[in-house]
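Researcher: Before we compare anything, I want clean individual predictions. No alignment, no superposition, just each chain on its own. First chain goes here; please echo the sequence and then give the structure tokens.
Model: Echoing the first chain and its structure:
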Amino acid sequence: MTAVSVVGPGDREPVDLGPARITILEDGSTTSHRLGVAEIRLAPRSDGPPQHRHAEHDEGFYVVSGTAVFTVGATDHEAPRGTLVMVPPGAPHTFANPGDEPLVMINTFTPDLYVHYFGDVRDAMALGASMPQAAAEVMPRYATTAADDFASDSTAADDDTEISEAPPTQGAPTMTAPTSTGPTSRTVTIATGMGIAISEFGTNTEGSAVLYLHGGAGPRTMLGLAGALAEHVYGIVPTHPGFDGTARPDRFDTIADLADAYLDLLDELDLTGVMIIGSSIGGWIASEMALRDNHHRVGALVLLNAVGIKAFGDEQVTDVRTLAPPQISELSFVNPALRPDFASFTEEQKAVGAANQKALALYGGEGFTHDPKLRRRLHRITIPALVVWGEQDGIAPLGYGRDFAAALGNGHFAPIADAGHFPHIEQIGATLGAISDFVDTVVKPDEA
């Protein structure tokens, strides 16, 4: 019989963080890590955490008693008893209890990524760190960053968080902010007649953008990063044809085909000076785009543990075609909590994953992880290029990344500690910091 978790009052030890007391009611062990649940108690006339963003999980708050004030960007929302607040990845948020009675909320995390954050903060404080220092140290472990960079004149139109009253008794109106920062989804038809499915973040106001190109794990791996940058720049996350159930035309089966298609996409959207952020094979595609760009559509590259070259020396990319998904996941993530629980996947999810891997193998071609001629062409890429590398990557080792950066005509290298093949997921704060420094010092030094 499947085990059922029953948690009674006092069954879980709370974590005390100053005026806040957090009790983890479900740590994900019962839900195969799909859901974590906590109770938050915040003392009267107390502030919550600094405003922040999560990249890899949705967060929910249900007000059991008292009245909270949620701040989203520069907009405050009063949340009395019975209010449900849902915060998607990338949305800035915090809360406070300005009232004279304790605030009690049920807090949910989907997936359960964040449940151990509070204990880690407590442990850091026990070693002498202040609350702000502890939060700054621990947040990057949980794909979370401080959100202290939004515009001071932001309005409700700058956020994308929905706050709604639960149906029973209270009768307060539903408050829904406009969704100008996205994501929104549509299909764009390019010059060849092929449709490309894209998710869009932010608003296209200046004719420039960031194009996020995913690797074999699919487009969802780029959504957190795109959401985190949505307040600053218009972002586009395409789905490679053949991934996540999208159509792939016959004879559309190489990295070069993808590079040409995405250049056509930039033509269709009339975007110039685009920064391309590519993860894994997305970095390979980005490199090919830069080599083929005849219309100055591409302005800079950020390559996240990219593949595509035959490196010098013994450090080469692992051929994962013979490995089971759990083995690939173990090589890809340092933090076990971030590894997908494949045992919990539905048959439909397994089928989508298998189709994605089939498409990946097709695009990779005979070399699978590289084009033997690419490395000697990379010197022709003279636009600014940053190679960001998770130091503990079991798929593409650190030496491979350094060689990739050295081969570029204007390459820069930024290693990320405590991260594997997806530094933008495991250490999003450090990754965003590396990108920000690159933009300020290399891409746009005169505007810094």
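Researcher: Okay. Second chain, same rules.
Model: Second chain and its structure:
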Amino acid sequence: MIKLTHGLAMMIMLGTTLPALAQSDTVPRYRMRLLGVYDDASGDPVEGVKISDVLGGASTITGKTGAISLFFLPEGTSVVRLQKLGYEVQTLTVTIAPDQTSPLTMLMHRVVELPTVVTTDVATAKIAATMRGFTDREHNRKTGYFVDDSILRKSEDSRLADVLRNRTPGVNITTVAGSMYLTTSSRCMDGTKAGPPQVYLDGIALSPDPISTGLGVMQPGPKVPFDLTRFQVSDLAGIEWYPDASLIPAELARPTDRCGALFLWTRH
């Protein structure tokens, strides 16, 4: 634990120097939010961890201190993935905002490393392990609609909105200025004026982007729909669609002011 405390101290020290330099370029301090990555057993900084923005695609690599600046993330909430061979993949949400400036700490858990030669069968097995819950729900098919990896691989050149239209009944999509929004589920049965369906990425609830309209900008909230053009079919290993909250399995259900849910599971 002493090493973790020391690592955080190093991050705070960096936070007093890097942002100071950035301010000269008119970059606000909060844009330089820090993340420290450590081994959960030893407390040592973990070098060479790939930190990537799942949706945006930008990434960086941790150095010897295990600390990096999240300057590459956009404003708002992003889904961030941490990857290094020999460690479990970690996913978390990170918010970049003026009131969210404290350093973040992530602990990486070691796993048995794969052999040097990795076959297609092993890679497929790894994906299957992370998708076990999806596979079980698809097999039971008590509620919801599923699009599995075999279909997605054949549809990599298609837009997510088109895949959903063809494979998931009850989806309602509106196209505006090139963006394709997942609007209120046409099969919502809760009898309320609930907002558009919630979107989850690897089980993490996302926030929609602000939408520019002729009357101004709609800020993220329960009534703002998700832009499906943010997501690439080639990144996905599975899709689950539940057009009404009452259909969502207990293990996936989350409190929300929206009706229906779209679960997107990525390829690690």
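Researcher: What stands out in the second chain?
Model: The two ends are 30 Å apart (CA to CA). Additionally, Confidence is low (pLDDT under 50) at residues 1-24, 114-124.
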